[in-house]
Description:
By secondary structure, this protein is an alpha/beta fold. The chain has nine helices and seven strands, in the order H-E-E-H-H-E-E-H-E-H-H-E-H-E-H-H. It folds into two domains: 1-38; 40-238, SGNH hydrolase (Rossmann fold). It has a five-stranded parallel beta sheet with strand order 4-2-5-6-7, with helices on both faces. A two-stranded parallel ribbon has the order 1-3.
Amino acid sequence: MSKLRFYGLMIAIFGIITFTLQSFSNRLTCPAKADKTSKHMYSYLALGDSYTIGEQVPMEENFPNQAVKLLTERHFDVAKPVIIATTGWTTDELAASIREHNIKDTFSFVTLLIGVNNQYRGRSVDNYKDEFMQLLHTAISYAGGKATHVFVVSIPDWGVTPFAEGRDRQKIAAEIDAYNAAQKTIATAHQCHYIEITESTRVNGINPAYLAGDGLHPSGKEYAIWAERVADAVGAEMKK
C-alpha cells in the first residue's frame, strides 16, 4: 500500500470516529431540551363551606372548578380541584372534617373561604380569629409550607340577598366586615394572599342572574367573578 493511500485511509477513519463521538455527545444533551417542553401538573386544594362547594349550582360552576378552567386556558396544567367543603360548616367543623379526611398529600396551591356560618350563628370575632388562624396554618402545611401559595377568599355578604329579607342588613354587613378585617390581618401577617370578593356580592346580591334558586347563594355567574380573581392571583404567583 502506498503512503498516500495509507494516509487517506487514516484520515477517513479519524473522521468516522470524530462524527461518532459528536453524535454520542449530542444524545447526552438531548434530555435538557426535552425538559424545557415538559409540562408541570399543578394540584389544588379548596377548603371552605357552601360558597366553595357551590350550593345549588352544577359542580363545574363553583369557583374552584371555574378557576381551574381559566388557569388551563392560560396554559397552566392544573388537575381537578380537591374540595373539602360542605354547606353550613363553621371553622371548627371544617377543621374536624380536614382531620377526618387525613390527606397526606401537599398541593401546588390552596384556597380558604370560611366564616359566614360563624357569623350567622352569632359567634364572636375573637373566637373566629383563633380558629381561622389554626385553619390557615393547616392550609400552609398543605401548600408544602409555602404561605404565598395560600389564597384566602373574603366572606360574601349574604345580608343583601332576598334570603335576608326582614333581618338587620346593616348589622350583618358590619359583622361580615369585622370577620373579613380579622382574616385579612391574619392572612397578610402570614404572607398569604387575600382575595376580596365581598363588594361584588353586595353589588350583585339583589340581581337574580347572580343568585342561585334559593335567593341566598351565588349563581355560576357570580362565581365566575371570584374565579377570575383567584386565577389571576394564582397565575401570577405560579409564574414566580
